[in-house]
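Run log // design_07
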């Protein structure tokens, strides 16, 4: 009887399989069910039913059959199939568990190992996936799919060379592997091997003509080669194959933008985002296009969205920073340029842009180091001369070629270095733009000037002119500013302007004082990307004709047709543009003028290099060479700067110009003689006044501060072990390591990217470059990093933190932010030397680690035989440091503030620092206040809320409610600070 049953079951299974093979899946499924009704543990029936349910789109039912199957017979195949199915269902951890079980059952089967690698990679466990693929290749070195997947995983990790090697293995083993050819092309492209990348993209297309991703990638490679029309064609082919291909829409937009079709580019960027709202690259490109249109706020928001979607998007950080620069937010821009470089070490544009901002801020040394990256950037043309670059070494017996690389103004400005190079003993040849040849031949010490388009001289080494400041160690203090270093090399004669034709000029009569001759330039080169913001209207200058005694000479190169009409209508303006054939002629004209007033153009540089008085009119955010917040420049001692106070505000600039010019002309009319003043006369203020140093005791207004406008950056995924308590976060003032279990500082950094920013806003106007700041109770350094950056390289910060684990985090944060001007001490400060006890803490548990109080550990405890709990820490006094100076003393030591102050009395009396202390203990507040009053301090409450609605991460959720930080600001009369908006301390404030 049993034999008959067996035969019947076998017949049913055979029939079911035949039905399945014939495409009659429903009938096959019914037969398998019949088998299960008779034999619920029949393995073949369970296996086939699991497969059929999965194929029919009933994955959960399939999972049930696999579960039953594994109960009956836990085979490697069943575990592997179930793992693959669970992976598709998004149940990744279960999938991994089953696939790992399959590997345990069949450790030497490459397929099982390979499937586990696939699931681990999908789970984001790239390192583990890589190890798995390597294991597959150990078992089967010719497993092409494993080579391909390993290459993809390695590429994700940035190990491009190794990825290329495995892609090459994959295509060798299977020359028809489309994805391997495509992936290999991507990796080769990343390495700059564009031609080789193109070969593999074309091979992928030949193998699979509908491979839309290969068409898209081929377009990217051709775009890199500058073949924009061909690139656009391939992007369009990709879109024909897949109209909803967001990346191809995005890439086509970039081609159109490069072709100057910004409006059309924006259309494609927006289409890409409509198709894929998570496409960070499209947000970044949209931001770039919007910035090109002058829509700065929208551009910044778009780049920020890209960063939020993809925190490691280097281009987005770079473009976001560039937008911030246009807003004048330089420090935050620097942070994002550095983020771009962090994520892409060889990001030439980010290095270059960082260099420009550092130069703008006056850090010439580091700025020019970063600026050297321009040669790797697409913003600059490549070096055109084959001989070796000069490294600053001795030039005896050598010929050096100094090459003009950028615009006329750059060449004029940096040609000053030619004489210094000549002092190194070599023969100096300058290759410059043809219109500068006659002029630059007047530089002392050079042998000759040649046309840079036709260099026919033998040289040993060469140096681009803008490399010379770096090679010669230029700083703000040693800029070679001696003028003139150029001389007129032309016999051009300035025509006379008849001021009597100007009805508004009451001095245009016989015997009147000669007119004050002013050369003017109102427009930058229209081909320059910054021309719009650097140029103003001719009418702004023509309004100066209302001033009596002024004659205008137009030095403008190639004025527009409309401007020519306006000039022709002004008989009292001499238009010289047709008479000035090169810069030597222009120099001769300038030499005969009393003053040059120009927007930021080569003429301004020329006047400065000739030592002629020149007023340069600048945009609100001007070029780096003009630095910030000053009306003079170390590059040209005879130049005075007039800056816009707001973007586009030329009216305000010309009001100040007119006022200054009226004063100058008035003094001349009163007999002061030539510009510079006759003997015994007061000097005419045509030149810039020396930049005065701000006296340290000058009063200024200290208002109740509000935290500054945020520049959001998303949470950066921490590369730290997931089971640890430490995390990393990019924050407002730097990158910070923090304990995720810290209920206050850690939580605030994680959610908001800052801690108690209201305190920082108070400190900002108090701290100056070169100051010494002492922070007692520095915790993990959230404010220490701010202090270190505020005092700069010439200042220093003492950071005191007694908790060993917290102190270690403080040191990590100083290292993460590359701060070398902070001295950290793992001690406590008190009234007298001794020891204290830190309570035993479990840093894996939730706690307020900034609210830990220390207990004094003295001899009486030892005598009583008490057992110390926790860690022993040394107590020192601040007076023992014998500080020579201290601008700010900040103390936050959880009730030990008075003891710390008493141990700092001599320091306070000698250095007279500003004090900032926590005072939130009602039982200790009165004594603390009384002690400070006796020291002569005037005290003010400063109680900012912990939550800042304008926080760095733009997080609207307030988890701290109305919690405030209760602190006191202590000032001495000698600090000369006027206080607005802070309540005077009279009695201890109630603790909230």
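design_07 sequence
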């Amino acid at each position: 009887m049993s034999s008959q049953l067996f035969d019947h079951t076998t017949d049913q299974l055979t029939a079911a399989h035949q039905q399945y093979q014939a495409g009659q899946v429903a009938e096959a499924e019914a037969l398998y069910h019949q088998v299960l009704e008779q034999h619920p543990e029949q393995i073949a029936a369970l296996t086939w039913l699991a497969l059929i349910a999965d194929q029919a789109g009933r994955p959960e039912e399939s999972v049930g059959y696999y579960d039953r199957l594994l109960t009956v017979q836990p085979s490697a195949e069943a575990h592997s199939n179930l793992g693959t199915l669970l992976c598709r269902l998004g149940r990744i951890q279960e999938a991994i568990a089953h696939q790992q079980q399959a590997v345990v059952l069949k450790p030497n089967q490459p397929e099982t190992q390979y499937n586990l690698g696939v699931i681990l990679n999908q789970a984001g466990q790239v390192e583990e996936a890589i190890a798995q693929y390597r294991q597959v290749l150990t078992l089967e070195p010719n497993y092409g799919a494993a080579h391909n997947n390993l290459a993809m995983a390695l590429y994700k990790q940035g190990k491009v060379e190794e990825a290329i090697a495995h892609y090459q293995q994959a295509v060798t083993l299977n020359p028809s592997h489309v994805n391997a050819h495509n992936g290999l092309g991507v990796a080769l492209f990343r390495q700059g091997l564009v031609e080789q990348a193109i070969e593999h993209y074309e091979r992928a297309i030949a193998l699979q003509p509908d491979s839309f991703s290969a068409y898209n990638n081929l377009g990217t490679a051709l775009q890199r080669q500058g073949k924009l029309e061909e690139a656009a064609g391939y992007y369009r082919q990709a879109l024909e194959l897949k109209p909803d291909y967001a990346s191809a829409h995005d890439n086509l937009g970039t081609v159109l933008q490069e072709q100057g079709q910004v409006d059309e580019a924006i259309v494609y960027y927006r289409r890409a985002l409509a198709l894929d709202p998570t496409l960070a690259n499209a947000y970044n490109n949209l931001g770039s296009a919007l910035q090109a249109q002058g829509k700065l706020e929208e551009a910044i928001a778009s780049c920020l969205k890209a960063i939020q979607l993809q925190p490691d998007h280097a281009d987005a950080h770079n473009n976001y920073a560039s937008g911030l620069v246009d807003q004048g937010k330089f420090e935050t821009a620097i942070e994002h340029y550095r983020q771009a470089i962090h994520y892409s070490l060889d990001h030439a544009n980010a290095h270059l842009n960082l260099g420009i901002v550092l130069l703008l801020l006056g850090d010439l040394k580091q700025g020019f180091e970063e600026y050297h990256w321009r040669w790797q950037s697409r913003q600059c043309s490549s070096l055109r001369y084959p001989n070796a670059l000069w490294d600053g070494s001795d030039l005896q017996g050598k010929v050096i070629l100094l090459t003009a690389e950028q615009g006329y103004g750059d060449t004029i400005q940096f040609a000053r270095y030619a004489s210094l190079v000549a002092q190194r003993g070599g023969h100096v040849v300058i290759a410059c733009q043809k219109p500068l040849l006659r002029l630059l031949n007047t530089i002392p010490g050079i042998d000759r000037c040649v046309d840079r388009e036709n260099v026919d001289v033998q040289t040993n080494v060469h140096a681009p002119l803008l490399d010379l400041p770096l090679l010669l160690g230029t700083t703000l203090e040693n800029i070679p500013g001696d003028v003139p270093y150029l001389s007129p090399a032309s016999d051009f004669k300035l025509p006379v302007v008849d001021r009597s034709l100007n009805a508004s000029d009451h001095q245009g009569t016989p015997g009147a004082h000669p007119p004050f001759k002013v050369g003017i330039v109102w427009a930058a080169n229209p081909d320059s990307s910054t021309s719009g913001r650097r140029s103003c209207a001719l009418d702004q200058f023509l309004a100066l004709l209302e001033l009596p005694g002024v004659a205008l000479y137009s030095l403008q190169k190639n004025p527009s047709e409309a401007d020519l009409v306006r000039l022709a209508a002004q008989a009292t303006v001499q238009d010289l543009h047709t008479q000035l054939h090169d810069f030597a002629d222009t120099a001769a004209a300038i030499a005969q003028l009393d003053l040059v007033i120009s927007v930021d153009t080569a003429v301004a540089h020329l006047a400065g290099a000739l030592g002629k008085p020149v007023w340069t009119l600048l945009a609100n955010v001007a070029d780096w060479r003009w630095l910030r917040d000053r009306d003079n420049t170390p590059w040209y001692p005879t130049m005075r700067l007039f800056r816009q106070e707001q973007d586009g505000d030329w009216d305000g600039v010309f009001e100040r110009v007119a006022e200054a010019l009226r004063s100058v002309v008035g003094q001349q009319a009163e007999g002061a003689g030539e510009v510079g003043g006759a003997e015994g006369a007061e000097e005419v203020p045509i030149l810039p006044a020396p930049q005065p140093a701000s006296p340290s005791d000058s009063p200024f207004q200290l208002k109740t501060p509000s935290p500054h406008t945020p520049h959001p950056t998303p949470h950066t995924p921490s590369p730290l072990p997931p089971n640890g308590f430490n995390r990393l976060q990019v924050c407002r003032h730097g990158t910070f390591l923090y304990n995720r279990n810290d209920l206050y500082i850690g939580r605030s950094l994680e959610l908001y990217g800052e801690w108690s920013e209201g305190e920082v806003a108070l400190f900002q106007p108090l701290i100056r470059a070169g100051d010494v700041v002492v922070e007692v109770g520095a915790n993990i350094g959230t404010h220490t990093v701010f202090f270190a950056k505020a005092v700069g390289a010439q200042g220093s910060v003492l950071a005191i933190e007694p908790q060993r684990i917290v102190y270690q985090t403080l040191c990590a944060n100083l290292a993460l932010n590359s701060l070398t001007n902070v001295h950290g001490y793992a001690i406590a400060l008190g009234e007298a030397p001794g020891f204290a006890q830190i309570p035993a803490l479990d840093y894996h548990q939730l706690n307020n680690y900034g609210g830990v109080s220390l207990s004094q550990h003295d001899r009486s405890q030892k005598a009583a035989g008490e057992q110390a709990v926790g860690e022993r820490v040394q107590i020192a006094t601040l007076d023992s440091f014998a500080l020579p100076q201290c601008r700010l003393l900040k103390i936050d030591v959880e009730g030990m503030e008075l003891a710390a102050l008493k141990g700092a009395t001599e320091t306070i009396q000698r250095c007279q620092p500003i004090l900032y202390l926590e005072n939130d203990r009602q039982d200790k507040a009165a004594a603390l206040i009384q002690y400070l009053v006796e020291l002569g301090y005037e005290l003010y409450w400063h109680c900012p809320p912990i939550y800042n609605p304008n926080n760095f991460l733009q997080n609207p959720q307030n988890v701290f409610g109305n919690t405030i930080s209760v602190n006191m600001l202590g000032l001495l009369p000698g600090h000369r600070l006027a206080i607005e908006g802070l309540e005077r301390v009279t009695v201890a404030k109630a603790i909230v």
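Residues 650-672 form the longest helix (23 residues).
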